[in-house]
Amino acid sequence: MKTILAVLLIVVLVGVGIWLWKGRSPGGTVTFADEPLDLARIEHEYPLSIAQRESLTPERLKEYSQEQVDQIYGRLTAGPIPDGPYDGDLFLPRGTDSETRLGEILGGGLKARLAKIGVSKSEGLGRVLWKGKVFYRNERVLRNRVEDLALLAPLTGGTTEGIQKQSVNGRDTFLLFPAKLYCGQSLLDGRRESVIIDYSFNDELPGYREHPDSLGGRKGLRIRDEIRMVRPGFYLGRAYMNRIFGLNFTLYNTEAASAGRDDFRAGRTAEDCEVGTQLISAAQRQQP
């Protein structure tokens, strides 16, 4: 049980299938290449318009195949490094068998145990435990939001003493799993940077607890997330374990979405990270 909880926490830390089609569609319908192509060519041939990006939601992203999610991610830029609390959700890659993607990565007896849990149950428990992330932009630090510590008792020593708390949306949230925050090269798309959430050296950060924070750090699976902005207040993320892709997640902040909407539609959204040498298409800056 303790081993299963540890793996589910990895899901929490980072913290759908439709065939690809070709051609352009008007308005908010996102289009895709019908065969694997390099991301530079996809962006050139199928640029995302503002209307298409505004049509995307956390729920809609779950409907796409992993190839389509990757194509969307490759056409995004990092945008500004977020600040404050963001609500989170996660979804595992589809296209595998009943064993979860985590089982494929970790292998061995642990793989068999995860297969018994099943994807939907893992995702469901992940959503119960993990509520999102809190960004501290000025300090370049992040922490993860966990509201119910009862399920984590075997990994926290059965006490909440010393765990930081913050009120989010009127509810007390425990802040666990600190990470460093910076701009860095994407592991999927090396043409431009993403916002990196790096747990490898979390034992150097304030508020670190050996149990359970070490699970995601250099003593554990060395979790490394990266995110890019779909639109203000809404980010699409990818989580890696020892540089192996594990799952997708989304982050959303209603206030940031509202505050940045007009600038986004006018093509004035700030970029804190390098966007690369490829020019952003005019279709991304103008309403269709």
Protein architecture, described:
- With 288 residues, the chain is α+β, with helices and mostly antiparallel strands.
- The chain has one domain (2-15, 79-284).
- Helix content is 30%, strand content 25%.
- The chain has eleven helices and nine strands.
- The chain has helices spanning 2-13, 39-45, 50-55, 58-61, 66-74, 101-106, 108-117, 119-129, 153-156, 210-213, 254-265, and strands spanning 84-91, 130-136, 141-146, 164-168, 171-185, 193-198, 223-231, 234-241, 244-252.
- The chain has an eight-stranded antiparallel barrel with strand order 1-2-3-5-6-7-8-9.
- A hairpin with a 2-residue loop joins strand 8 and strand 9 (244-252).
- Helix 1 (2-13) crosses helix 8.
- The longest helix has 12 residues, at 2-13.
Write the layout of secondary structure elements.
Elements: H1 2-13, H2 39-45, H3 50-55, H4 58-61, H5 66-74, E1 84-91, H6 101-106, H7 108-117, H8 119-129, E2 130-136, E3 141-146, H9 153-156, E4 164-168, E5 171-185, E6 193-198, H10 210-213, E7 223-231, E8 234-241, E9 244-252, H11 254-265
Antiparallel strand pairs: 1-2, 1-9, 2-3, 3-5, 4-5, 5-6, 6-7, 7-8, 8-9
Helix pairs in contact: 1-8
